[in-house]
Q: What sequence folds into this?
């Protein structure tokens, strides 16, 4: 028997490749896109189910290149380190991955996870235990005892929240092999860390070149890729030379570092939504003006070089750092596109390409998802509006008509139970949760899109 077909007609099709949108039909058969354009009309069975999309736009589902699905909208390291329990972290993640999906994000890269939960979440989704987007996962982030983003809060050995602290080559080799064994798609390395007593120098490289090469050599020999948290030009160069496939943040990149990225074929995930949200909307949650100013400088200081990377043909992905209190799940997965348009000067179609076709690289599903083309998996959004003119409409929950994952429409009307604060779970470092509802209220009701309340 042929797979069941659905013919979506008269849609404003934005295919995710950066090409201009066009009015066309799209034929979905089973879990895949069978045909686009006149071929879709020709290949459709006479009895095909039809969906009239007149006035609506059809685009690939968003792929978020940087999410922490187990952090449960944490307000800072203190919360992640001392206020999370493995069982509850897994249970809240089950709720949160569905929230990510119903906002129009059909795939994401889970960079590192609390208690190594990423692999289990991914497999639970793959095998139909729970509902959620496609995932590619890292496990614990690799750090040396010098630490990562949390300075002296890091212990010298063992695991802490989302990180594993490693001393020397033998421990690095053992941990990379362990992560490969459990099924990680990516090894995430905190190539740089901030030393609290030397903060003026910015983040510093905390691994030796030999150690970084060992990570890449072992990972690559098993077909696993390597992602590096890199702030600072030197770290980007070192990571690319060692063989890293993905550079996260890449703020403070210079021309030499960009040359290394191009030469070694890496891609970039700046993940600036966190900074952009706090910078633009932080007032709604009484964020510190000093922090807002630091983030403003980070975005404005790195925009030109990231735009240069995009022009040089380097894939620059949209990642939102969702999982913190300023980037709650389900609310901001479209938001990096706005940042790319506003600060990097990309056109809406280019920004959409970064959030769809390029995003497939982080998902490790290049040529399988991320575009509307025959043979791709049918991960699709139907939107009342034209994202090729204004990407913000993708974030409007009231404009999202359909989210389709692998040919199946997701039930957007099913609501989760109301959530109240969990005991010993929250610490307020950045302020309260920066949901779109909070921003809307602070702006006199002007809509910014998104879901209902979170807690
Ligand atoms: Zn992150």
A:
């Amino acid at each position: 028997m042929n797979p069941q077909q659905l013919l979506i007609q008269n849609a404003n099709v934005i295919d995710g490749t950066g090409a201009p949108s066009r009015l066309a039909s799209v034929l979905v058969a089973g879990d895949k896109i069978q045909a686009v354009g006149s071929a879709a009309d020709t290949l459709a069975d006479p009895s095909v189910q039809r969906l009239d999309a007149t006035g609506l736009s059809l685009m690939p589902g968003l792929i978020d290149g940087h999410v922490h699905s187990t952090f449960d909208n944490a307000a800072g390291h203190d919360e992640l380190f001392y206020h999370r329990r493995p069982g509850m972290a897994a249970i809240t993640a089950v709720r949160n991955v569905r929230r990510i999906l119903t906002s129009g994000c059909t795939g994401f890269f889970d960079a590192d996870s609390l208690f190594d939960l990423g692999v289990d979440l991914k497999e639970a989704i793959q095998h139909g235990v729970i509902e959620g987007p496609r995932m590619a996962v890292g496990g614990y982030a690799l750090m040396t005892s010098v630490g990562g983003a949390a300075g002296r809060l890091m212990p010298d050995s063992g695991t802490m929240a989302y990180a594993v602290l490693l001393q020397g080559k033998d421990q690095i080799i053992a941990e990379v092999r362990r992560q490969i064994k459990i099924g990680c798609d990516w090894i995430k390395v905190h190539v740089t860390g901030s030393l609290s007593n030397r903060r003026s120098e910015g983040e510093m490289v905390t691994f030796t070149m030999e150690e970084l090469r060992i990570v890449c050599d072992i990972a690559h020999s098993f077909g696993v890729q390597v992602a590096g948290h890199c702030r600072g030009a030197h770290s980007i160069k070192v990571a690319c030379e060692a063989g890293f496939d993905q550079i996260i943040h890449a703020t403070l990149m210079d021309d030499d570092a960009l040359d290394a990225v191009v030469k070694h074929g890496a891609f970039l995930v700046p993940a600036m939504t966190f900074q952009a949200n706090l910078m633009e909307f932080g007032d709604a949650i009484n964020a510190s003006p000093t922090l807002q100013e630091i983030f403003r400088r980070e975005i404005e200081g790195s925009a030109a070089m990231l735009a240069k990377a995009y022009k040089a043909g380097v894939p620059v992905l949209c990642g939102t750092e969702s999982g913190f209190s300023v980037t709650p799940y389900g609310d901001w997965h479209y938001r990096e596109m706005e940042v790319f348009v506003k600060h990097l000067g990309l056109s809406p179609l280019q920004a959409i390409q970064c959030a769809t076709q390029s995003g497939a690289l982080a998902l490790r599903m290049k040529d399988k998802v991320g575009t509307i083309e025959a043979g791709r998996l049918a991960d699709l959004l139907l939107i009342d509006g034209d994202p090729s003119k204004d990407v913000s409409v993708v974030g409007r929950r009231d404009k999202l008509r359909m989210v389709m994952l692998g040919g199946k429409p997701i039930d957007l009307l099913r609501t989760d139970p109301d959530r109240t604060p969990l005991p010993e779970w929250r610490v307020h470092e950045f302020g309260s949760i920066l949901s779109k509802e909070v921003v809307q209220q602070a702006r006199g009701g002007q809509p910014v899109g998104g879901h209902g309340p979170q807690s």
Q: What stands out?
A: The chain has two domains: 5-60+373-409, 62-363. Residues 66, 68, 111, 321 surround zinc ion (CB under 6 Å).
